[in-house]
């Protein structure tokens, strides 16, 4: 037996390995099993080149746990190691045997996993002691045992071993004893080793017999050595892709489409990506892609490794050019990972375009479930936007689908405003905005349905890309102003009548948490007497603030609406007549007070004409301020009279409530009062 010191530069290296080599301690199982698979693949390569002439035999890698001995043993029947190789590859940390082997057998080597030489030492993250018992495949080799207790000192001695290969025996530390639980190991093997290319057996299969679970003689093989993504697309049928999806996500809903990645230049990349149905929640769908390197699981936390929108996809990506490394930050900055990421973006866009061209009817039938993914990609990835805009679909309120180019051709003639902007009208809720949609249709306009969670963002994005195209929600203004034309309609009301009606309607409008501005439009005798609209800009800002904490300023502002009074409607004329009948004498008295004040103000304005502010005598300034104060007081008196009239007017309240009801804004007690009042007014 010999002893020695491992070739490290510091006694502090082992504590670093234990704590920081990998972010998750459970990664040790992946590394040790991968090494076993690696050794087996090497033997198969040597056999195929004639350098190993013996029988390969059963190459199953076996994982065994002994709770009493507190050990986990990984056994392979691969190439094994001689004493010299242990001293070279184990005792010199970070010297990678796989790198040297790959260099020598680069044309024949089967999926050699290791690249860094540190994988074996991950075993010390969970072990007080690690033994290696190994017998090389080389003729005349002697078996050796290497032991180390997690410090630079080791022992190396000759032992008896009947079969070629290597056993890694990990003596699990007390603080990591949960790894000795069979269920925990089964979980980790399923996570990390489910698709390794050599069979992995974890104990024996069990079955229920006579009311109890009994162990059989059959190996419990936990992996599929030839998963769907490793096969050629021509060798797979549609049901094979479906079966593989259910293998990955047993509880998942069937996907919409799949894309089979199979690239060998300028890098190696295989995989299958699935498009899941996405209704209205982005976050819940993320991180379903599994990243592999030669069938070895790397991570399923792929944000920052693939473009963000691709994290909504499900499936598998496998490439030997993705490093089996210890940190996601390293993966994110790796040049090959970035190239692969860019290629996948292009492949996804091109595949969707192919599906769109091949069977548009099928594509349209799945668009509502696919839309959020495409929108997310267009918003976050410029290259994807450029490709996706050709198959991006918009749907109108009739349920018909159009590409952006197709829709522009349809609406251009009728929905171009006086400034030559093409106006895309849209609704977000057909039930809530039904009357506005119908008014737009009656005008000959087409209306889109934009009810996705990301539609507000995609609208802004599309407007930025093409500045002559605008998106306007149908309830943002009266129909005649949604698309501004040159014609202007004359109002039947005088400016004075409009001014008098503002406090009348303000008196009955809701005030809690909302602002209303009374405006006047000539909408025709058949249109509603009152309408409620919300300005496009402010509504968009508030919608975006609801999804973006950085825009909290808009979210905290009260909602602002316009109460649009139809100056052509006979009920508005009725309110004016009632106002004149009840307030004519009092309003005349107010006007009598205002007339001399206005005359005096005008006279003072004439005196200071052509004078600079400092040239106006202080006496005149004081007089002007006093007159303005009196005018304000008299106007307040007038406004008070009009508000009192409005508060007592049932018709004013009824028309406002009807407008609120049309916008689904009348609820609770106010709705109950409206119903009761309506019954009374009908009697």
Summarize the structure.
By secondary structure, the chain is of the alpha+beta class.
What's the SSE blueprint?
Layout: E1 2-5, H1 13-20, H2 27-48, E2 61-66, E3 71-76, H3 83-89, H4 97-104, E4 127-135, E5 144-148, E6 153-158, E7 165-172, H5 182-192, E8 200-209, E9 212-221, H6 238-248, E10 257-263, E11 269-275, E12 288-293, E13 296-299, E14 314-318, H7 328-333, H8 335-358, H9 360-380, H10 382-388, E15 393-395, E16 401-403, H11 404-411, E17 422-427, H12 434-442, E18 447-449, H13 455-465, E19 469-473, H14 479-482, H15 495-506, E20 514-521, E21 530-533, H16 536-547, H17 552-556, E22 559-566, H18 570-607, H19 618-647, H20 650-662, H21 668-682
Helix pairs in contact: 8-9, 8-10, 9-10, 9-13, 15-19, 18-19, 20-21
Question: Number of helical segments?
Answer: 21
CATH architecture of the largest domain: 2-Layer Sandwich
Strand content: 15-25%
Determine and state the CATH class of the largest domain.
Answer: Alpha Beta
Fourth-tier CATH superfamily name of the largest domain: Histidine kinase-like ATPase, C-terminal domain
Lateral arrangement of strands in the main beta sheet: 1-6-5-4-7-3-2-8-9
What fold name goes in the CATH topology slot of the largest domain?
A: Heat Shock Protein 90
How many domain regions? 4
Query: In this structure, how is the largest beta sheet organized?
Result: 9 strands, mixed
State Rg.
39 Å
Q: Look at the helices and sheets and give the structural class.
A: alpha+beta
Number of DSSP E strands: 22
Percent range for helical residues?
A: 40-55%
Average pLDDT rating:
85
| Weakly predicted, low-confidence segments | 94-98, 108-117
Outline type = elongated
Distance separating the two termini: 111 Å
Organism: Marinifilum caeruleilacunae
Keywords: ATP-binding, Chaperone, Nucleotide-binding
Family: Belongs to the heat shock protein 90 family.
Protein name: Molecular chaperone HtpG
